[in-house]
Every structure is written in structure tokens, then in C-alpha cells.
Amino acid sequence: MLPLADPSASGLGAKMAEPRRHAFSLADELAALPTAIDWLRAVLASHAVPSDTAFRLELCVHEALENVLRHGHEAGAPREIELTVEVFPGHAVARICDDGGPFDPLSAPLPPKPATLDSAMIGGLGLRLLREFASECHYIRDGGKNVLTIVARRAA
């Protein structure tokens, strides 16, 4: 498993409590997305993660999982998808691991921003939202799996 964001980078110092880790396996279908987000919301609430931090992490996880569920596999090929969350005193970390085809959402090109609200189309903003709302994001391909780590830090 990958190391998480450096706890000392949160400004909380090296003497942090151990993170609280939770894991959730998703069914390989878009209908599983609301259940996964409800689970994430409950985990964050159970650790009293501030609402702005929880919102940013939920938004990023939702967008990333929706991409995995919609685009991350060949038709009919089942795959494993796991969402892991760790809560630290200064931040929360979500890790999405799937065995779909390789896809780095951090290096994929972003669609151009619409010039006007009238020219904006529905959809296609997930990668931009992920990159703008996460405090940190990291992607690796490890052992035939995509591993996306999303960090949401508490506002100062």
C-alpha cells in the first residue's frame, strides 16, 4: 500500500494520533455510486470532519468513482473497486483502487473551459473538479491497478 500524505505537512507536527482507516468495496455498476458516497459521508461525519473538508473530499471521490464506473473497463469485464478512507487530525485521505484499464486522471487533458455559461455543456467537468477541489492528488499504476489518492486538508 502507498504511504499517505506526510502528516507533518499538515502543520500538525509529527506527534499525531494514528489515522482511522475504513474500507468499502463497490459493486461494478453505476448504481453503487450513491451507496459509496453515503458510506463516505457517514465515515467523515463519524470522525467530525468539518463540512467544507468533507464536501471537497466527497465531490472529488464522486467524480473519480463516476469516471471509473463509466469509463474504466471493457464492456462486460467485471472488476474490483475499493474505496479506502483515512482520517487524520488535519486532513482526510481517500484512495480509490480499481483493476480497470490504465488511466491517470491527473495527466489526462482537460476540456477547454466554456467561453460563456450558454456555451457550457453538461458533463465533462469531473477531472477539472477533482484537480481544483482536492488539496493533493496522486496517481500510480501498481500491480495492474489504478490507484488514485485524494487528500482534503482542513481550511486554516
Brief summary:
It is built from three helices and five strands; from the N terminus they run βααββαββ. The chain is an alpha+beta fold and 156 residues long.
The largest sheet is: 5 strands, antiparallel
Strand content: 15-25%
The CATH superfamily label reads: Histidine kinase-like ATPase, C-terminal domain
| Derived structural class | alpha+beta
Ranges where pLDDT stays below 50 over 5 or more residues in a row are 1-16
- Give the termini distance in whole angstroms: 29 Å
**How many distinct domains?**
1
At CATH's second level, what is the architecture? Answer: 2-Layer Sandwich
Question: Would you tell me the overall average pLDDT?
Answer: 82
**Percentage of residues in helical conformation:** 25-40%
Q: Supply the number of helical segments.
A: 3
Shape by Cα distribution: globular
Report the CATH C-level class: Alpha Beta
Which terms summarize this structure?
156 residues; alpha+beta; Heat Shock Protein 90; five-stranded antiparallel sheet; 3 helices; 5 strands; globular; disordered N terminus
Structural write-up:
By secondary structure, this protein is of the alpha+beta class. The protein has a single domain, classed as Histidine kinase-like ATPase, C-terminal domain (Heat Shock Protein 90, 2-Layer Sandwich), CATH 3.30.565.10. It contains three helices and five strands; from the N terminus they run E-H-H-E-E-H-E-E. It has a five-stranded antiparallel sheet, covered by helices on one side. Helix 1 (33-46) runs antiparallel to helix 2. The longest helix has 21 residues, at 51-71. It is globular, with a radius of gyration of 16 Å.
